[in-house]
């Protein structure tokens, strides 16, 4: 074969290889599923935000329940302080979850069961006295089945453990109160595990947690994250990703509106300490800050979708979130000690209302 023919053949082979490679690449591209940015954002929201938050909450709740049980068995000031510390550490992820109180939290009515306020302290004290007189035995089943939302959950435990922002003295706690605390703590742990199991799937939680639910005869529903991520498919109550986004945005709006109307708004209007949420541990403003962090995390999960449609709206939301944080940080000390700071409290309320309005704009952009 002469040099000219060899050159033609080499060129033909090279061209054929390039064409073949190009055809294979096009075929592979056609065969691979198109990346759905909305579905990816929803999956990240469920898998990287909601489930880890509830896992942390249930992990901490188990530690709190153990500490409350140990305190009941042998009360000391150090054990009261430790139980109080673990209660607050369990409450942090709860407050960080308050932008997603839809789904399992709503289905099982766990928001009021875990976090109702103001407390019915009259009834709570009466039940503890009945326990002291042995006319009633307080255990987890009694709390679950016989007590109303205003006498259980985080704030009941807070009332038993704290006064004026400080842990109580062990000598001030009666055996009935200690039994009450241990039972409430056990139910808080059950509720926290229920939230984790219902979102992640019962097969995704630890054996210890699964056993606790089994013994309490609690059966969470199927994986809610699965429903969330499969909108429009069989087995999901959501007909479209648009409905899921509506749920996410609505959850954030709900908690921001609650800060404006109740958590800060009501004490602002009444100047009554009894209207402050975490009255005994002095963590009302800390709670609200964690709520705003919850909204920020929820928004960050979907912010690329917003930015793709309107950079202006995206920037407005982030600016509003920063304003709420700044207004909360302007008050030094607990809310109950700052009810006379009308201007600063009004700034919190106004910044929350602005954020809520900007979340309305997000809803208009993303929800069809």
Automatic annotation (TrEMBL):
Signal peptide: 1-27
Keywords associated with the record: Signal
Imelysin-like domain segment(s): 51-361
Localization per record: Cell envelope
GO cellular component, one term: cell envelope
Domain of life, source organism: Bacteria
UniProt-recorded name of the protein: Imelysin-like domain-containing protein
Species per Swiss-Prot/TrEMBL record: Akkermansia muciniphila (strain ATCC BAA-835 / DSM 22959 / JCM 33894 / BCRC 81048 / CCUG 64013 / CIP 107961 / Muc)
């Amino acid at each position: 074969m002469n040099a000219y023919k060899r050159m033609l053949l080499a060129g033909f082979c090279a061209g054929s290889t390039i064409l073949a490679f190009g055809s294979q690449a096009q075929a592979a591209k056609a065969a691979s599923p198109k990346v759905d940015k909305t579905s990816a954002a929803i999956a990240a929201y469920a898998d990287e935000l909601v489930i880890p938050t509830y896992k942390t909450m249930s992990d901490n709740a188990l530690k709190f329940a153990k500490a409350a049980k140990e305190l009941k068995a042998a009360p000391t000031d150090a054990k009261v302080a430790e139980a109080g510390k673990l209660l607050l550490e369990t409450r942090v992820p709860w407050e960080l979850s308050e932008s997603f109180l839809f789904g399992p939290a709503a289905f099982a009515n766990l928001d009021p069961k875990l976090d109702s306020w103001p407390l019915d302290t009259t009834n709570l004290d009466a039940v503890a006295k009945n326990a002291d007189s042995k006319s009633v035995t307080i255990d987890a089943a009694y709390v679950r089945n016989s007590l109303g939302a205003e006498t259980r959950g985080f704030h009941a435990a807070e009332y038993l453990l704290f006064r004026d922002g400080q842990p109580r003295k062990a000598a001030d706690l009666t055996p009935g109160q200690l039994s009450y605390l241990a039972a409430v703590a056990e139910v808080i742990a059950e509720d926290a595990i229920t939230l984790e199991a219902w979102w992640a799937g019962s097969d995704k939680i630890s054996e210890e947690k699964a056993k606790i639910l089994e013994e309490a005869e609690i059966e969470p529903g199927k994986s809610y994250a699965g429903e969330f991520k499969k909108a429009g498919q069989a087995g999901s109550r959501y007909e479209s990703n648009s409905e899921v986004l509506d749920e996410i945005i609505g959850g954030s709006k709900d908690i921001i509106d609650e800060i404006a109307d109740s958590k800060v708004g009501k004490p602002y209007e009444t100047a009554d300490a009894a209207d402050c949420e975490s009255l005994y541990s002095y963590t009302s403003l800390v709670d609200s800050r964690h709520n705003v962090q919850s909204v920020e995390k929820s928004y960050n999960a979907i912010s690329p979708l917003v930015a793709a449609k309107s950079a202006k709206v995206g920037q407005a939301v982030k600016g509003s979130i920063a304003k709420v944080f700044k207004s909360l940080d302007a008050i030094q000390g607990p809310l109950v000690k700052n009810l006379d700071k009308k201007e600063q409290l009004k700034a919190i309320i106004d910044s929350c209302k602005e954020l809520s309005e900007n979340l309305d704009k997000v809803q208009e952009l993303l929800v069809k």
